[in-house]
């Protein structure tokens, strides 16, 4: 995919000679295929798999919490069901929501028992889908209108469920879902006077829960999880990850990448005291943008002018941008 460079000048409307750039294929560059889990994280995942317990991940934004779930699903060849937590989420949303208004409206215009059947008004949430996914097709059919299985059902089998950013939810949510999460079941009140749907043994969902802080989570919830905190990334691993991701763009390594790494790790030093330290994700954006920067060649050192033009990918506060711009000039001058 390519598009025109934005020029931002009052005289430029539709440029006579547009300057085209090849934009970054985000899915290819940032995708989970090239995710590399650190050893401790790999061990925590395996402990969670072994014990059938949820894995709770914390860590700074951009350290790879969400993408771990995507990589896990990819590697185990399980479908991934995602629950994106909102400030209004309640425990039941993890399993299903019921459209009471829709059913009421349908009842105004129809007396058809099939049209009014409760299964027409159920929308399964991520964990609900994963539990249904574990069931034999014959059993799962009972939950759907006219026994028609939905497109997302590919069971019987296991699935990865990502409950992303659980700390966004009201504090009741983790407590309210404790038993259901632990025992992989839920109850649909509107079906058959309260139908219990329970994951088939050996086909239980693999649950990954992310949070930007473990502080708000109740001890009873933490007790049921395998916990792993992602530490900020080290130099060698970040180089490896960046190299693999740049290779997907057919970009070579060289002094440019080494200087970019140095700038990144310098900026993370306590003495710069950045309001928001850049993360793995921001570094990858920085090198991806640099790879498209005219004149920034992989085999040459990083020039301050090039660094400054793509600095907005790396630092996210006004005072941090000033520090980073100054630092990139000092680093270049001292080479
Ligand atoms: N270990 C890793 N290996 C490869 N890429 C990584 C790794 N960690 C992070 N990334 C890159 O960083 C990006 C952001 O990761 P992700 O969205 O998982 O972070 P996060 O911890 O969930 O952040 P947030 O808390 O802001 O949601 C990913 O798209 C990926 O490109
Ligand atoms: Mg995330």
TrEMBL record:
InterPro entries, A to Z: AAA+_ATPase, ATPase_dyneun-rel_AAA, P-loop_NTPase
Q: In terms of domain of life, where is this protein from?
A: Bacteria
The chain positions of domain AAA+ ATPase read 51-234
Recorded GO molecular functions are: ATP binding; ATP hydrolysis activity
Q: What is this protein called?
A: ATPase family associated with various cellular activities (AAA)
């Amino acid at each position: 995919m390519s598009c025109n460079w934005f020029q931002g000048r009052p005289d430029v409307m539709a440029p006579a000679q547009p300057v085209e750039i090849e934009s970054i294929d985000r899915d290819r560059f940032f995708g989970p295929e090239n995710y590399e889990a650190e050893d401790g994280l790999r061990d925590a995942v395996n402990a969670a798999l072994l014990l059938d317990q949820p894995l709770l991940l914390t860590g700074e934004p951009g350290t790879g919490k969400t993408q771990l779930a995507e990589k896990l699903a990819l590697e185990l060849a399980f479908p991934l069901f995602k629950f994106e937590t909102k400030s209004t989420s309640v425990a039941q949303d993890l399993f299903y929501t019921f459209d009471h208004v829709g059913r009421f409206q349908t009842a105004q215009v129809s007396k058809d028992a099939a049209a009014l059947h409760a299964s027409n008004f159920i929308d399964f949430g991520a964990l609900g889908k994963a539990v249904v996914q574990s069931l034999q097709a014959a059993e799962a059919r009972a939950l759907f209108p006219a026994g028609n299985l939905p497109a997302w059902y590919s069971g019987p089998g296991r699935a990865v469920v990502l409950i992303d950013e659980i700390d966004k939810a009201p504090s009741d949510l983790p407590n309210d879902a404790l038993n259901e999460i632990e025992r992989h079941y839920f109850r649909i009140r509107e079906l058959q006077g309260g139908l219990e749907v329970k994951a088939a043994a050996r086909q239980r969902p693999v649950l990954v829960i992310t949070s930007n802080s473990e502080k708000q989570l109740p001890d009873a919830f933490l007790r049921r999880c395998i916990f792993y905190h992602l530490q900020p990334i080290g130099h060698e691993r970040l180089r490896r990850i960046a190299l693999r991701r740049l290779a997907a763009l057919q970009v070579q390594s060289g002094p440019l990448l080494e200087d970019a790494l140095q700038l990144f790790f310098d900026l993370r030093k306590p003495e710069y005291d950045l309001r928001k330290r850049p993360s793995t994700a921001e570094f990858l954006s920085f090198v991806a943008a640099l790879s498209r920067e005219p004149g920034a060649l992989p085999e040459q050192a990083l020039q301050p002018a090039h660094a400054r033009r793509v600095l907005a990918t790396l630092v996210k506060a006004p005072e941090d941008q000033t520090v980073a711009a100054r630092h990139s000039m000092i680093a270049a001058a001292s080479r």
